[in-house]
Amino acid sequence: MVTQIHKLFPGLLFALCLSILTTSAASAAVRAQVDRPSVDLNESFMLEIIVDSNTDLEPDLTVLEEKFYVGQVSQLSNTSIYNGEIRRSRTWTVALMPKITGAQEIPPISIGREQSSPVRIVVNEPSDAPPGEADVFVASEIDKTESYVQAQVLYRIKVYRAVATRQPALREPTISGAEVLVELAGDERSYESILNGKAYNVVERVIAIYPQESGEISISPARFEARVLRGGRITGRKVFESDAHKITVLPIPAPPDEFPNAAWLPARDVQLSEEWSREPDRIKAGEPVTRRVTISALGQIETQIPAIPPPEIDGLNIYDDKPELSRRNEAGGIRGVRKEQYAMIGVDGGTIELPELQVPWWDTEDGSWRVARLPSRTIAVKAVDEPAIGQPTAPETSAADVAEPAGRKLMPDGFWVRVSQLLGAAWLLTLFAWWWSSRDRNRQPRAHEPPPIYKQQAKQVKAARKAAQAGDATALRSALLEWGRLQWPENAPRSVGALAERLAPPLADELRKLSKASYGPGGVDWDGEALAKALRSVKVLTDDVGSSATDGLPPLMPPVS
Question: What's the total number of domains in the chain?
Fold first, then answer.
């Protein structure tokens, strides 16, 4: 019976490990997100489906076809090392265009047995119309024509192109009048729009403007300069302009009666939350516990959020730390985040009441004062039990100590300790001698193993960026082709142009410019800084890129002859 168990044990262990691995792979999280939560009916947007493993399964995109046109699909596998831990993920990027207006819900996407959460998106009626049948035009808009001091105003610039352009340059407008603070609200976006049956490639840039004084602000037209490619011919440099805008900035209103000393905080939304380093009802007197209070304001930068001073509470010693400031970009603009951190130490045992936190703020949407609140809470501090201090007692003497006269101990102190140490050292010497005699003297030294592929590729990308910044086209091509050989050892690209066909924009676009500058006519210049910036993100296109929609979308980029 024991022999049978020993024979079955390796198989049972293997089945258990396989079950654990299968369960881990099957439970890989699936996430879905969009590049922007609000689009027009005639605009495309990008849906990203991310799974936290390098799975061979494919997402089921047929559930999208009821409410959306499904366009180009691309894939990207990513491997990263964070604190010594290897992390792998796979991302599908899908171009979608809505079929109907209104609040829509992108249904859950299934990959194997896992599903993503649904994603909400708002589809608006088409807002921009081209001037006549223009192939290139610039549109701009502001979300408010009237605002308050230090309140956010979003300014959007959109460049529409139905034809290919060369040497494009977007000149941002000049802002005059009242003093302002200008911040970039997110990354530049690129998507497709269909106006009057014509497909346009749209580049959108969003700028957040914060007036610093009351008065009037004038925004000059944004300018887009480029050479246009038509019928195989390229025009001279043309200039396209958007509309100008004006904004009226109102002064700061009086604080509310219940908060006469309220700090001025104009925003669209303000949230208060807290975190504890451990449960506050399990602390003892004298032991510190950390409380983190977070205040976030949509439509405000982090440096304008007022500090929340720690309360003075009997029975608690409170020590505040340096605040942590950050921001994130949302559909409504910039959300500033301020995190306050306090260390709290209970002096004595007992129940302590933490008061409610209140932060008054000005709602820029409604034009009224509001108060963000963090409810009060009660914490229990446990007193420390101290042992009673009594009179010292004399050490007890054993009968053996009494019976044995002083100076007649059989062994000196530490005798057996030294004996144990000598025996342990002899045992270690015996093990070392056995290892030395049994090792293979004829064994050749192990050959040095090459570094992993991803480290070799990272080295080549670093060399390519350095060469691009230095304007060294020869070294740049050499590093890029070596990277391609590591990526596709069986079918390596032989030129920079061939490599560009396997990569995603913007890197692919910059590589095509480099290829034309090297081999094409006309001596076209290439931008080393732009290429070095594009090398920060290398995205590989898969062979199965295609469209699964019945009514296929036109290409996302304008045609290039």
Answer: 4
